[in-house]
Design brief:
This protein is mostly beta strands. It is built from one helix and 21 strands.
Length: about 270
């Protein structure tokens, strides 16, 4: 999801650098999840180490001028999948602005989530306009987490399409989908240590992923646990919020974000 994520209530996107991106709002459509999910990828590297670690690197193709170039690196280490995303401003001018996130659906053996639980160290819930699913009153207000998420209770009691947040805009979070009957959990965490980060990313600015959108689809055999650098509708929020959450890259500058998925035995 990039250069915006979630819903964007506009018929065009005008980035802070003046880049104008027309959006499809025909038939009442609401622009959703950015543009990059629809762009083709090209494999630029595959490798496997003697220890069995596997790496796959993809370039995102067809990115328009005024938006960041993107390269995705997937690293599989035993039962952990690390996903690093590198953003580059290849233009000579001007700066590029964006937010980003991913939308993985997690499932444990395709079982019903009604007998499973969510465990998380997220600190707050971002209060949303429940009809539009964007921040309430066009600002970020936090509410008590336990009123919606009900940590460690069965998901049969919960339907989610909610945004949660770490304790501040630079903090990480860890969230698990837990099946005690199977004795397994699948985890999404943005708490990636320096020693885990690929060497080619050392020295680059790191983009924080302090937000997590969770969604339970009607089939109820999976949960979307979505690490995000921002909230929805960001380019319509006040400038002081944009200045804290929107990443800006000067010409020639690069930055990266990183999170991991883990399969755990209980």
């Amino acid at each position: 999801m990039c250069p915006w994520l979630g819903r964007l209530y506009s018929d065009k996107l005008v980035l802070p650098n003046g880049t104008e991106v027309p959006l499809d709002t025909s038939e009442g459509k609401t622009p959703l999840h950015g543009l990059y999910y629809s762009y083709k990828r090209k494999v630029v590297e595959r490798k496997e180490t003697a220890s069995g670690e596997q790496t796959l690197t993809l370039d995102v193709l067809g990115v328009p001028s005024g938006m960041p170039s993107v390269q995705e690196t997937f690293i599989l280490r035993d039962s952990t999948l690390l996903l690093a995303t590198i953003f580059s401003n290849a233009d000579v001018s001007p700066s590029v602005q964006f937010v980003y996130g991913y939308h993985p659906y997690l499932t444990l053996d395709h079982r019903s989530i009604d007998g499973q639980k969510i465990r998380s160290n997220l600190a707050n819930e971002v209060l949303l306009d429940r009809k539009r699913l964007v921040p309430l009153d066009d600002t970020i207000k936090n509410g008590p987490l336990q009123e919606t998420l009900k940590l460690d209770t069965l998901l049969k009691e919960i339907t989610l399409d909610n945004c949660f947040a770490a304790k501040d805009f630079t903090s990480s979070f860890t969230t698990q989908l837990v099946d005690e009957e199977l004795g397994l959990a699948v985890e999404v965490t943005t708490d990636v240590q320096e020693s885990e980060i690929p060497a080619h990313l050392h020295g680059l600015r790191r983009i924080s992923l302090p937000f997590c959108q969770m969604y339970t689809p009607p089939t109820r055999t999976s949960v979307a646990i979505e690490p995000q650098s921002s909230v929805a509708n960001i380019f319509n929020l006040p400038a002081d919020i944009q200045s804290q959450l929107v990443t800006s890259l000067a010409p020639g500058e690069r930055a990266f974000g990183i999170f991991k998925l883990r399969l755990l035995s209980l």
